[in-house]
Amino acid sequence: MSVLDILKTTPRLPDRYRNLSDDEMIRRIGAIKRSMGERLYIPGHHYQKDEVIQFADDTGDSLKLAQLAAENHQAEYIVFCGVHFMAETADILSTPDQKVILPDMRAGCSMADMADIHQTEKAWSILMETFGDTILPLTYVNSTASIKSFVGKNGGATVTSSNASTMVEWALKQKERILFLPDQHLGRNTAYDLGIPLEEMAVWDPIEERLEYSGPVERVKVILWKGHCSVHEKFTMENVREVWENMLGVQVLVHPECTFDVVQAADHSGSTKFIIDMIENAPTGSSWAIGTEMNLVNRLINNHPDKKIVSLNPNMCPCLTMNRIDLPHLLWALESVVVGNVVNEIKVDADTAGFAKAALDRMLQHSK
């Protein structure tokens, strides 16, 4: 079933929730959390709004939330404040009797949507004809359960921005080449940091169904899927030059989903956790231009008034799909649980989940 089909059959937020005040919703959500105790678990991604993140039992990046989902066995209900692929991961890693709920089914990920299973299977067939059995697939966790399942079935693993280097090194010990889905920028930046030259990287275009590479194909070690993050790709070299000109002593700190030139120009690049830790440990009075999602940047600004922090792109908006999760949808999801009418449950079928879990487990065992 496609995402469009899911949305067509998903109940919509009742109008009564749209007219509630924030204070009333906060009061009711807090009361449900207190009454349910450990039966309810709310993980929240760092990119969530403050109004939502205040109710998270744990916050984290994709790796931490995956680890926490695998460890939590006592909660009956996991209400995931993140996006669809994260809730799928939680369902794959949770026990069969736990229910995973996404407050708003429209909270998707444009990057994950850039690689569907039909495109991937077609690409794999062509690449096998070109390179033979020399490729191991890796997929960023920002991908659908079906892509994770494909990767697991073919001996590969998932990666996050926190452990991409570890997993790429692992993969290249298994096979001569890797196929890196679906974010070309994370794949390129990671491989380059490991010493693989750009001349040994090719790009697979799933729309044109062809390999973008001008040299002899036997030199290719990394095949990058032509996908990207719609937020991080908007940080540009023009933004970097502007902060260099306008902020004396600024340090540029970016996420590795940014383009290669921006990452190379930056003073530091790393995962969401890396960015948070870097700012927390930075000296008072230091200046930072951060290239990542705006909700997180604003939270860092508010939490560290002793430092000068700006967004690398002043015109950047928050991740629109992450922002689908809001107080009305969270309250609706929780009150539906209370009355025994679960809405927006995320359920990955057993066959897909089995191979997807294999891919996730290979990552988790190398990410202790």
Write the layout of secondary structure elements.
Elements: H1 3-8, H2 15-18, H3 22-36, E1 40-41, E2 43-45, H4 50-53, E3 58-60, H5 62-71, E4 77-79, H6 84-93, E5 99-101, H7 117-131, E6 135-140, H8 145-153, E7 157-159, H9 164-174, E8 177-181, H10 184-193, E9 201-205, E10 210-212, E11 222-225, H11 237-246, E12 251-254, H12 260-265, E13 268-269, H13 272-280, E14 287-291, H14 294-303, E15 308-311, H15 327-338, E16 345-346, H16 350-364
Parallel strand pairs: 1-4, 2-3, 4-5, 6-7, 6-8, 8-11, 9-11, 12-13, 12-14, 14-15
Antiparallel strand pairs: 5-16, 9-10
> How far do the termini sit from each other?
35 Å
Spans of 5+ residues with little confidence (pLDDT < 50)? none
Tell me which oligomeric state these chains represent.
Answer: single chain
Shape: globular
